[in-house]
Specification:
Layout: E1 5-17, H1 21-25, E2 29-42, E3 46-50, H2 53-63, E4 71-76, E5 80-83, H3 95-106, H4 109-120, H5 123-128, H6 138-149, E6 156-160, H7 171-183, E7 187-192, H8 195-201, E8 204-209, E9 212-217, H9 219-234, H10 239-244, H11 247-254, H12 279-301, E10 329-333, E11 337-340, E12 343-346, E13 350-357, E14 360-365, E15 368-373, E16 377-380, H13 391-394, H14 400-409, H15 418-421, E17 426-429, E18 433-436, E19 442-446, E20 449-456, H16 460-467, E21 474-478, E22 481-486, E23 491-496
Parallel strand pairs: 3-7, 3-8, 5-6, 6-7
Antiparallel strand pairs: 1-2, 1-4, 8-9, 10-13, 10-16, 11-12, 13-14, 14-15, 17-18, 18-19, 19-20, 20-23, 21-22, 22-23
Helix pairs in contact: 3-4, 3-14
Length: 497
Amino acid sequence: MQNIILLRALNLTYAKESKKFTDRMLGREEGLLLKDVTFHLYKGEVLGILSDYRTLHYLKEMVNGSLDPKEGRIKTDSSILSLDVLDHINHPHPLNIFVSEILDEYMRTEDVEEAVGQIMALPLFRKYWSTPVRELTRRDIALVLLELSKFTDAEIIVYCNMYRHLKSRDTAVFKETINGQEDRERGVLLLESSIEPIESLANYFLWLSYGQIRYDGSVKQGIAQYNAYMKKKSQLKSVDEEAQFDLEWKRNVNEYGRYAHGLKRLSRKQASPIDGLNIRKVIISLLLMFTMLMASVVIFMDISFTGSANTGQDQTVAVPETEEDDRIAYAVNTEGSLEVNGESHPYMSLLQVSDREDGTYTIVDGGATVEMDGSSFIYFNPASLYPETTLEALLPYTDEVFENNYLYYSMFMNRESGAVTDNMNLSASSARHAELSGIPISYQFRDGLIFSMSFPARNIEGMYEVFGIETEDAIFRLPNGYMILDASNQTWLYIQR
């Protein structure tokens, strides 16, 4: 194992914010969950961290960047794959989409297709391939996560409380997965509330007790110290003894106190009233109050910032001349095949529009213009305001083939047309489009690139009702593109920017 540090966790401290407004204003926390936790993860190392699940949850969130610590920092330049069964028990999409999402994020694009084929051949995935993840048992989700982690290129892999969801017959699978990551020289964070997997798989041990480092060292010595602690704890005979047991460690974290910079305790004599204030929140509150007061003044005094005060007389407002929009607009072809200046344009292809008037479109093609009847077009201007939504929200109104595999088919967007024509079975193709054989999906090409794709729509009436659409043809703006509906042919056009 080379001594290459993949991740540094330096003095991590975290406390949950109080639910009471006054406590938040005064900077009072509900209690520390992590205090001054420092560790390093080396390349090819399996670092076992033992604690209760709540502590491990917050530690995991800080490591993967989802949560900022109150004090301390995480330093890493490596990609991190964080796996926790409880993060996915409510995942709504089928397993095949879930698999594609993870592989797309942690693998090279050219390797995803091969990996999907290998995963589909595994019995567990083949059995639940079209089943929503939330319908799987926690054991099945754990096995799915373990298997997926073998295919990803992440340099750091976090397994959080995975062992508790597995059965005894799955121990070999868990061990094989961890050992495989170690052989690939990945850095593994084994966050567990059970000592068994750490004892058998980790090569370094960190024990967090009440959010503090109680042991940091070799696994063998740490296990001996932990067992001695548990033996002593098992000899307690009453609730009172349990309350007094390990009191010093409990008091360090759970007892509320005032802390100076660096979380050092202050006595009442040392602490001034201003130490109890959260200065940042006080300043923000004052700014908000000042803004509200000024807004009230503007409303009640009827102040006009663009001219003189309102005197009750008519005022003349200068209206600027309308600026001409020089952005490119398109006409979506809704006919089977359209001839323009001797060139054939396939269904759902986009033609550039320079002008439209009285139902007539001026089409620009190859530098020449031609006027055409607009009855066979859907006008599309990317600069216009369209209803905003996400592709995931529109998936229930797309063909099931696309809905269940949209991550795979949309992966080819904005790539060279050869990515489709050279690698996929086609029923028809030209320099402008390609139709997949046996699958109702077509790709449209523009300047040698895959510009858009089309596929059938379903449950259009339900979509109209949900989104409040009153026109038959609909255009939606997505975070990364557009969805255009040709209602008469029940077909979607998807453009990804």
